[in-house]
Amino acid sequence: MKRIMIIAGGEWQIPVIRKAKQLGLFVINTNLYPQSLGFNDADVGLVADVLDKDQNLAYAKEWNVDAVITDQSDIAVPTVAYVAEHMQLKGVGTAVADLFTNKSLMRSFCVKHDFPSPHFKLCNELKDAIAFLNECNFPLVVKPPANQSSRGVLKVTNMHELEHAYTSAMHHSKDETVLIEEFIGGVELTVDGVQLNTGEHYSLATSTKTHYAHNEMIANQLWFSQQHPEIDFDALHDQHNQMVKLMGLPFGLTHAEYKYHAGKFYLVEIAARGGGTKISSDIVPLMSGIDSNNLLIRMALGERINEIHPEARKITSVLDFFEFSPGKVKTIQGIEQASALSGVISIGLNIEEGDIIEEVSDDRSRHGYIIAYAENTESLKSLLRKIHQTVQITYE
To answer: Could you check whether 119-181 and 317-395 share the same CATH topology?
Structure first.
């Protein structure tokens, strides 16, 4: 039986762990916490920080694994690449992993290859960010160059906010640098796809985003469809496919975010893994008929995938995030009833009875999610209203 190591073992890694088991593989899962959810489905659960490259490599050698992967975890991508290189397994390579996880490198890549890019500056000190005001005016976006879940990402409109945002971004920065860039308005989009190990990239699921009213850096809904009345999805896919090819990704899943502004697609960020909150495991197959986790595992084991045949399914799907009022939770009701509604794929809450709900501050602090679909947007909006009416919270 072949052995696969899956680095990161939170809720969003459970689908790929289960997929590997369904394919008859022996699964070794590593994650920071002894009670990690992924350990329940893996054959072996081993405690290691996903950022600890040497500990994960030691485990890979100990179990003599045949493949190493991750999904829906950006911070695990460099570690997976490191382990694969040292074990001489199929991987993306550490240089490519850095390009797909460091936003400063992404910005430089876009400039080099003439892709639309906001003006930006990598800062070592606050004075560097202040000096950037000679090049760009407010509003600006301040962020750590390499992190995930929108941690430390803030839009700023004045000097006071800039100082606060810089401190926050530095707190979440892994290398004591901060990226500051021009704020690009317009519609935010996502593209999820797969790079085959025979050379072609396929864009499989595309969404338009809306955001929380109190923080426009955090999405509260992703609407997936095959087309948009005002945006040329085919042009977006052509740009995305070309970008992935030029970035040198040998195989794997991709998840990218763009801003459509003044007729151009500006890259926000791109990742060499599938979209989180079950986008790659649930929404991509729903929209395209392609099991992206299956392809990822098979390619990591060395199988050549010559082509795939995506379907343009005539449905609309949504990844919707709950937003409850702040307070201490007394009871939660209606989850089972809502989950049983036709068109509901998955519902999950990040809160329990007795928890204190606070305002959403980043992707990880969102209160819960809904994945659902319908034949058209209006039908799906009606379904969402019914779900939100069904799921009820009372407060102490």
So the answer is: no
